[in-house]
Specification:
The structure holds two protein chains of two kinds. By secondary structure, chain A is mainly α. Chain A has helices at residues 2-34, 45-85, 89-98, 107-117, 123-130, 145-169, 173-181, 186-215, 218-224, 231-242, 245-272. The termini of chain B are far apart. Classes of the chains: A mainly alpha, B mainly alpha.
Chain lengths: 277, 268
């Protein structure tokens, strides 16, 4: 038995060492470098510099990612809710077919799509102009922070909706039907019965999206032209233009910290909910 | 009357959603076949495949980038499967010390913002002479892909009934023999799905390649990025379409490969 366990460990070892060498070790290096001055002494000066140069960008990044996460959550709940509570089978089937399209489209392709679609003379404004909703001559594009949020929501909503819809499909339908028989509206059933039961899955999906959005470099550069910049753009700039690893890693530390806050919120929820799995 | 209003509301909402989902893709497709298009014209003035010839010119950059991308993706899949199949099997059979910690280590590359890690990897690779090499890029893609490969492989092996393996052993198959003739074929659809997934992730990967691949390894996403930032919208749109087709194809076919019983066991 002991040998069997050792053998199993040997099977995992190659994969584990690749992750340790090429992810965990550089991650540790990044954390250490954030707190190290050029002469090798421990310091907080990287953070002082980061705050001074990029204080606004830190706030900006957090707001963009937070707003995107909230919108993604609301849309995923609405899509999942309609899929389970919708009463028109054809509309449900169409939505099921429709919502997943952007699921595997890479961020860089999504960014290129939005870069043209949301521009002042993009297909969106052109369509609105043809419908008489706006005047193209005086229209403005959305290629700024709004464009970043639209791109993130467009790309990440299907992922969260897929998880949430899967969790909703495996719920016991009898409570929903009982509430329906007692005269509860569909929105009320969704908010009061369905969502609390799938909250855990929803939060996991949203945290994974939150982390993904914090790591994307292509979207802020291509959609908003990098101004005002998100942290990823600032890090790439510090590295490519100055080889300034101290400041770049301090920015990296801040992005880990944002993830940490998200994870903490998740864990705290778990505890306050009586430690439900 | 009420049903008519219901239909109108439903149709309107679904129509808006369809416009928001397909509009950006349609705009990309239009740019791919536009030869001349400028403000204030709402549609291209001249359509054609002029830029397709430019992109698919055998001596052009795009063909070279495409083959670089495919080469890297194939090697990444090979590396990921070689690492993930044994690891997934060990995790599925569950007699592993520190199983939770190991699963967590494989999750880490997805649970942490990765950009800061990538430029530190590039920093390390620089001193090893791996920057700007195919090997370096394959290594970075492998770490990224391992998360999915290991988790999906573990789920696929968990879905295989352990009794079948024991039955094969009972009638005289060796441990290795029963693995290759019983377990692996039964887990093959799940492994196949993880291979396709890793292939696509590698094909689409941008950030890691951006830091580790410079200046010599130009994959398709990097070529697309350069074209887009330089304002060559047609070239960017055509290369984006090349990346888009396999992604959408996978989305449409994923359910054939990833059976519900495997999906239910991911993360278990």
């Amino acid at each position: 038995m002991r040998e069997a366990r050792l053998f199993m460990l040997l099977l995992v070892l190659p994969a584990l060492s690749v992750v340790l060498a090429l992810f965990v070790y550089p991650l540790g290096l990044s954390l250490a470098s954030a707190f190290t001055a050029k002469d090798g002494t421990a310091t907080l000066e990287n953070f002082a510099k980061t705050y001074q140069l990029y204080g606004d960008d830190i706030l900006f990044t957090f707001l963009i990612v937070a707003v995107s996460t909230v919108v993604i959550g609301a849309l995923a709940a609405a899509i999942g809710g309609y899929l389970i509570l919708g009463e028109n089978p054809r509309a449900v089937a169409f939505l099921k077919w429709l919502y997943r399209w952007p699921l595997f489209i890479p961020f860089i392709v999504a960014a290129q799509c939005m870069r043209t679609f949301l521009a002042k003379n993009g297909l969106m404004n052109n369509t609105f102009d043809s419908l008489g909703l706006i005047n193209l001559q005086s229209a403005v594009g959305l290629l700024d922070w709004r464009g970043i949020i639209v791109t993130f929501v467009w790309k990440q909503t299907p992922f969260v909706a897929l998880l949430v819809a899967g969790a909703m499909a495996s719920l016991d339908r009898s409570t929903m039907e009982a509430a329906r028989n007692l005269g509860a509206g569909r929105v009320r059933i969704l908010v009061e019965i369905v969502l609390p039961q799938v909250a855990q899955v929803m939060v996991v999906g949203l945290i994974l999206s939150f982390v993904t959005m914090l790591s994307v470099l292509s979207v802020p550069i291509m959609v908003s032209g990098g101004s005002p910049a998100m942290l990823t753009v600032d890090m790439a700039f510090r590295i490519n233009s100055y080889g300034d690893y101290g400041t770049a890693n301090a920015l990296g530390f801040i992005s880990y910290a944002m993830t940490g806050i998200a994870a903490w919120v998740y864990l705290r929820r778990g505890v306050s909910g009586g430690g439900r799995p | 009357m009420r049903t008519a209003i219901g239909w109108l509301l439903r149709g309107g909402a679904l129509g808006c959603l369809a416009f928001l989902i397909f509009g950006p893709i349609a705009n990309l497709a239009l740019w791919a076949v536009a030869v001349r298009w400028y403000f204030p014209y709402k549609l291209p003035l001249v359509y054609g495949f002029k830029y397709w010839h430019e992109v698919f010119d055998p001596r052009g950059d795009a063909i070279e980038s495409l083959s670089t991308s495919l080469f890297i993706a194939l090697f990444t899949v090979a590396a990921c499967l070689a690492l993930a199949v044994p690891a997934g099997y060990a995790l599925a059979r569950g007699r592993l010390p520190w199983r939770g910690g190991i699963l967590l280590a494989f999750l880490l590359p997805q649970a942490m913002p990765s950009l800061a890690v990538y430029f530190n990897v590039a920093h390390i690779f620089y001193s090893l002479g791996l920057n700007g090499t195919i090997t370096g890029v394959v290594l970075v893609h492998t770490v990224h892909g391992l998360v999915f490969a290991v988790w999906i492989a573990a789920a696929a092996f968990t879905a295989v009934d352990h009794e079948l393996e024991l039955a094969a052993r009972n009638i005289g198959a060796s441990a290795l023999g029963s693995f290759f003739t019983v377990t692996l074929p039964l887990a093959a659809p799940g492994i196949m799905a993880s291979a396709i997934f890793v292939f696509l992730e590698s094909l689409d990967e941008f950030t890691g390649t951006y830091f580790v691949g410079v200046p010599d390894v130009v994959t398709l996403p990097l070529l697309m990025f350069t074209a887009s930032v330089a304002g060559n919208y047609q070239i960017a749109a055509i290369t984006a379409l090349i990346l888009l087709v396999p992604s959408v194809g996978f989305m449409l076919f994923i359910e054939r490969f990833l059976k519900a019983d495997v999906l239910a066991k991911v993360g278990g």
